[in-house]
Prior knowledge:
Elements: E1 7-8, E2 30-31, E3 44-46, E4 53-54, E5 67-69, E6 76-77, E7 90-92, E8 99-100, E9 113-115, E10 122-123, E11 136-138, E12 145-146, E13 159-161, E14 168-169, E15 176-179, E16 184-187, E17 191-194, H1 199-206, E18 211-213, E19 216-219, E20 226-229, E21 235-242, E22 252-264, E23 267-269, E24 275-280, E25 289-293, E26 299-301, E27 304-306, E28 310-315, E29 320-326, H2 341-351, H3 359-365, H4 375-385
Parallel strand pairs: 1-2, 2-4, 3-5, 5-7, 6-8, 8-10, 9-11, 10-12, 12-14, 13-17, 17-18
Antiparallel strand pairs: 15-16, 19-20, 20-24, 21-22, 22-23, 22-29, 24-28, 25-26, 25-29, 27-28
Helix pairs in contact: 2-4
Amino acid sequence: IPDSVTEIGEYAFYGCTGLTKVTIPDSVTEIGEYAFYGCTGLTSVTIPDSVTDIGWSAFEDCTGLTSVTIPDSVTEIEDSAFEDCTGLTDVTIPDSITQIGWGAFTGCTGLTSVTIPDSVTLIDWYAFYSCAGLTGVTIPDSVTYIGDEAFSGCTGLTSVTIPDSVTSIGNEAFGYYWDDNTGEHLLTDLVIFGKTGSAAEEYANENDIPFVALGNELSDTETNVTVTGDIGENTKLEVSELKPEDVQISGKKACAYYDISLTENGEKIQPNGNVAVKIPYKDGGENIEVYRVNGDGTTEKMQSGYDGEYVTFITDHFSKYAIVADGGIEGDTNNDGEVNIADALMISRYDAGLADLDESQLAVSDVNSDGEVNIADALMISRFDAGLINSL
C-alpha cells in the first residue's frame, strides 16, 4: 500500500482469504469497518503509529492472525474489531486506549492472557466473551464499568481480581458459560477477589460465586503455604505436613497431606469468610484436586486449581487437606475399592509377565515405594490382607 493512501476504506480487503501479509504505511490514519474481515490467511499485522481509528469488525474472523500490535495513537478498540480471531494468542493494548469496545475480542479462543492498561475506564459488553483459553486477566484501578457478559464463556479463567474502582458490573459479566445441552448459562469454577463492600463482592454474592476479600497474606516458612483473605493482624498460620498414606479417598491417590489452621492468642480460630490457600506442588499428575478431611473422617472436594507449580483452593473452614490425583487407593491394583489378596495376585501375574498394568494401576501398586512393582509389593499386600501389618 503506497504512502499516498491515508485511509483503508470499508470492506477494502473483505474475504481475501489468500492474503498472508500486508504492510500499512505511516500515511494511513484510519482502517475502515470490515477492512480485513475474513482474511483467514493473514498471520500478523503491524498497525503504524499514524492510525487513530480501527473500525468496527476491521479484523473480524481473521482466524490465522496470531499476534497484533496496536500503536499508542489508537484511543479506542472499536466493536468486534478482532472478533473470532481464534488464532490470536497475544495482544498488546497500549496505554492510549480508554475503551475496549463491544465484542472487541469475542471468540478469541486462543487468547491466554491479557493485560489491560491503566488508561482503560470502560470494558464494554461481550468484550472478551467466549475467550475460553483466557487463564489470566489484570483489571486496573482505572476501570469503572464492565459490561454485560464481558468475560462470560471464559471457562479457563479460575480467578479474577476486580478493583474497587469498578462501580458497575453487568449481567453475567464473569463466571458464566453457555451449555449447549441445557440451553442455559451455567456457572464456571471462578473465584472473585476484591475489597469488602465493593461492587465485586456484591456481584459475587448475587451470582453465588465464591468471593475472597483482599486483606492480609500469611505464609508458613517451612512449607511455603500461604493464606490470603480477610485475616486479623494478630492471626498466625500453622501448617503441619502429614503422611499421604494416612488418608484414603476412593478412586484417588493422595499425593500430599496437610493440617492447616489459624490461631489467635494461642487459640484455633476459623476465617471470617472465604480465604485462598496456595500450596507449592511440582510433582504433576492427572487431575490434581484438593479434598478437605473432616474430623469425622468424611471428605469434601474443594474448589481448586493447579498451574503446574501451585495448588490453590478456596475454603471458609480450616481442617486437614489432601492433594490428590487420579490413581485410586494405595494397593488397590484392580480398582475395586478394596485392598486384598486379589490385588497381590494381579501384581504377581504382572511380575511374571502374564498380565499388563496401566499407569494408574502401577501408581498405586508400588506400596513399598522402591520405584518398582514386583513380587515384594504383592507380598506386602498379602501381609496387609492377613492382618500382619496395619497399613501400607
